[in-house]
Amino acid sequence: MAENQLGGQQYLVLPEGASRLLGKEAQRTNIAVGYAVASVVKTTLGPKGMDKMLVSELGDIVITNDGATILEEMNVEHPVAKILVEVAKTQDKEVGDGTTSAVIIAGDLLRNAGNLLDMGIPPAAIIRGYDIAREKALEALQNASSTVTIDDSDKLEKIAKISIGSKNIGSDATKAALTKLVIQAIKQVSVKNGSKVTIDKDFIKLEKKEGGSIEDTAFINGVLIDKEVAHPGMPKSVKNAAIALLDIALEIEKTETDAKIEITSPEQMQAFLSQEEKMLKDMADKIVKSKANVVFVQKGIDDVAQHYLAKAGVMAVRRVKKSDMEKLSKATGARMITSLDDLDAKDLGFAGLVEERKISGEQMIFVEKCKDPKSVTIFIRGGTKQAADEVERALTDVIGAVSSAIEIGRYVTGGGSTEVEVAMKLRDIATDIGGREQLAIQAFADALEVVPKALADSAGMDPIDTLVQLRSKHKGKDGRIYGIDVYKNSISDMERLGVIEPLKVKAQAISSATEASVSILRIDDMISSKGTRPPAGGPGGMGGMPGGMGGMED
Ligand code: ADP
Ligand code: MG
Questions:
Q1: Which one, out of 28, 355, 358, 509, has a CA that is 20 to 30 A from the CA of 100?
Q2: From atom 16 of ligand 1, which residue's Cα is the shortest distance away?
Q3: Which of 220, 178, 199, 202 is closest to 398 using CA atoms?
Q4: 422 and 349, same structural domain?
Q5: Is pLDDT above 50 for 554?
């Protein structure tokens, strides 16, 4: 950015139409924007939370109470709003659940920081206090957690039930059935390494087709591919399939021949065509010779090659996505082949059944009954597109919650209990630390309590009264398990109620909320190079990203 000295003052050379906000004005605007964005999702928190309906410019409708989705669909333009969207996305990516919590904590961290700024506390002191508080909060979280393992079916089911509980996707029985599918899928793809269990969530494929009902959602012990069999003469169903995965085209590259061959007579044309046909037949022959009876090809398959494969009774599917090829490899044990000359019987994978079925008028290929597949599918159905979409979002959350519980091996109690407990510990620490940071740590503790307050609110309880009661319960012996029973509008033992959540969901929410609020507080200069609208004035306001925001990416 160009700067020049003028009369001892620093002048920033800005293009015409650019606008700038400095110091307190920038901070105040950013805090207001951040808090406003977080407030949008607050009412969706918990099983008594409400849904939002979002309508895009094109009229597409999304109905959800998933924090990340709401923020994304809102299409916010303000850079601070975008940082909050990033919080939700990070949470979604890192864990999959806890997006709303992360965002509303960030919102309250910002609002409380605003109050401290009003009291004349410098941003640097607030930031220091928030950083200390984050570290101590994570410690307190760890201390409040208990162990869970992959064999703890009862606890995993509870974690899954709480995660799916806040989604409006059907009856409790439906939700229970869905969580069973998820746990089955997670267990199937989990890999044990000594005492450590890893779960690659990418290998639990969520494939959805609208139609049917949510109850028709099913677990597939293998991979479901949204493609069709290449040629009508090929079998539509192959039992005990020997599967080849080809990362090549069963075609002849036109550029190879076009330039070189000059055809002057019909005989030459015939010779050329039969030459091509022979090459394609050779390709098909190599596949047949390997004893493969099903072949998935990442690129195209020429009609001639299709013909010969069909004649030999081989099922072939073309233009399969690379990601699906990887999943097929993990599910069937087939090795991806990049040259047909390498294809050998030992490269083939196995599936008990490969079958093309018509689902809601479209063909899909089911690769199922695999032997101990490390890649599986949950096939989501729903009466409407919106319903199927929300099921997908819910299952993403549950997969994230259960697998992080297994991988980290620890869980905490929910219903606001853990937030109140951690806040209490932070207040104790704050008094030891003293100074201006003390106030920031207290502000941080208050911000965490936005979770029980929002839960109380959603249940129709008085948020402040509930919080006061919770705090006093937590001061007593074994107080840490007390949270809000949103169904009975009372304070209760969350462990006994089975309201438990993975440690990682809470830890990640606190971490990303702190990071976002701190990076927003660091900004004291907002320069917009496009348009003249002030940044708070809605869409298109701020174009430029001041350097202070760089802190988000880590
Ligand atoms: P997030 O996107 O943050 O996961 P949710 O809408 O899923 O938001 O709500 C999660 C919050 O709801 C957590 O604080 C969790 O403890 C709480 N919660 C979920 N189920 C219950 C329940 N049955 N009783 C009390 N609190 C619950
Ligand atoms: Mg959730």
A1: 28
A2: 414
A3: 178
A4: no
A5: no
In what helix (H) or strand (E) does residue 6 lie, and over which residues does it extend?
Answer: strand 3-6
The whole-number pLDDT of residue 553 equals 34
Total of domains in the chain: 3
Mention every residue, 6+ apart, whose C-beta is less than 8 A from residue 336: 245, 246, 247, 325, 326, 329
pLDDT digits (tens, 9 = 90+) for 314-343: 999 999 999 999 999 999 999 999 999 989
Atom of ligand 1 nearest to the CA of 419: 14
Say yes or no to pLDDT of 87 above 70.
yes
**Are 448 and 484 part of one and the same domain?**
yes
- The answer to the question of residue 48 being in a domain is yes
The answer to whether position 554 is within a domain reads no
pLDDT of residue 354: 98
400 Cβ below 6 A of ligand 1: no
In a domain, 500, yes or no: yes
Q: Domain range holding 278?
A: 228-372
**How many whole angstroms from 212 Cα to the centroid of ligand 1?**
29
* Alpha helix (H) residue ranges in 348-502: 385-408, 417-433, 435-448, 450-458, 463-475, 494-497
Q: Does residue 154 carry a catalytic annotation?
A: no
Check whether residue 383 and residue 446 sit in a common domain: no
Which numbered atom of ligand 1 lies nearest the CA of 163?
7
The answer to whether the CB of 98 is under 6 A from ligand 1 is: yes
**pLDDT recorded at residue 544:** 35
Per-residue confidence (pLDDT) for residue 336, from 0 to 100: 96
